[in-house]
Amino acid sequence: MKKISLGLIILSAVLTVAPSVLALTPNTTPGEFRKEIRKEAKEEFKNERLLDKAKNFLKKNLRFEARVKGKITVVGADNLSISGDDGTFQVNVTDKTQLLGKFGGKTKLKLSDYLVDHEVMVIGKFTNEDKTIIEAKVIRNLSIQKRRGAFFGTVLTKGTDSFTMQTLKLGVQTVYFGNAKFVERNETSMTYTDLKIGDRVRVKGVWDKTLNKITEVTQIKDFSIPIVVPTKTTQN
After folding, report:
1. What's the Rg (C-alpha) of the chain?
2. For the chain, what is the HEC assignment?
3. Residue 194 CB neighbours (<10 A)
4. Which of 235, 220, 215, 106 is CA-nearest to residue 153?
5. Domain membership of residue 71 as a residue range
6. Are 10 and 45 within one domain?
7. How many CB atoms within 10 Å of residue 53?
8. Per residue in 159-176, pLDDT tens?
9. Domain for residue 30, yes or no?
10. Cβ distance 164 to 150 under 8 Å?
11. Domain containing 160 — which CATH number?
12. Are both 212 and 164 inside the same structural domain?
């Protein structure tokens, strides 16, 4: 098919380019003429390929014409029912569906994390003529506001499995440290007992904006414990 297409382009180029080439260079040899025609044909073929790529790109992206927002009314084993301003929809979840929280990123969710009354945004494609059933490409749960990162604050209170800290922008957060590693500013290991109220810390974990807590903590660094530098003894 490409050979036929290329042949037609070359023929078209001969009909359109030949007069101008001969008019500009009357002493052009047949070899030079063919070279010029071939050059023009390649340019035409290149433009045709770019056009095909553009068409394929549009076709690929227009497949996901379903973009709806609503609240979950039913959570099934592999689907959701949602209702919103655009109507009521059945949203089918496949092994290729991305389940994300509001902040997206590295915090991946499971379908069991989705609850009735959670607000979601669904992107996918309709699979029936009435456009009420969607095969989801992405489901973003706007009610789950979690973000993985590093959070800084000052220790306010200490409990048995958690402590609270005052942050600069996020207010008071409860840190559930679990099996997290505690370290001093120079990465030397320490224990939870060494952590004091008033210490400035950095917590690496998953922040839940709705519940004001940090879980899945991997490391807690205490910047308030001074670094002890061993003194050198002088020899007489």
Report:
1. 32
2. CHHHHHHHHHHHHHHHHHHHHHHHCCCCCHHHHHHHHHHHHHHHHHHHHHHHHHHHHHHHHHCCCEEEEEEEEEECCCEEEEEECCEEEEEECCCCCEEEECCCCCCECCHHHCCCCCEEEEEEEECCCCCCEEEEEEEEECCCCEEEEEEEEEEEEECCCEEEEEECCCCEEEEECCCCEEEECCCCEECHHHCCCCCEEEEEEEEECCCCEEEEEEEEEECCCCCCCCCCCCCC
3. 12
4. 220
5. 66-141
6. yes
7. 10
8. 999 999 999 889 999 999
9. yes
10. no
11. 2.40.50.140
12. yes
Q: What per-residue confidence (pLDDT) applies to 230?
A: 61
User: If pLDDT is split at 50, 70 and 90, which confidence band does 24 have?
Assistant: very low
- Is 50 exceeded by the pLDDT of residue 8? no
Total domains in the chain come to 3
Q: Residue 194 above 50 pLDDT?
A: yes
Give dist(CA 50, CA 133) in Å, integer. Answer: 34
pLDDT top residue among 185 and 163: 163
Residues 6+ apart with CB under 8 A from 18: 33, 37
d(CA 12, CA 43): 13
What pLDDT, in 10s, does the model give residues 28-68? Answer: 455 554 555 566 556 555 555 655 665 555 455 545 588 99
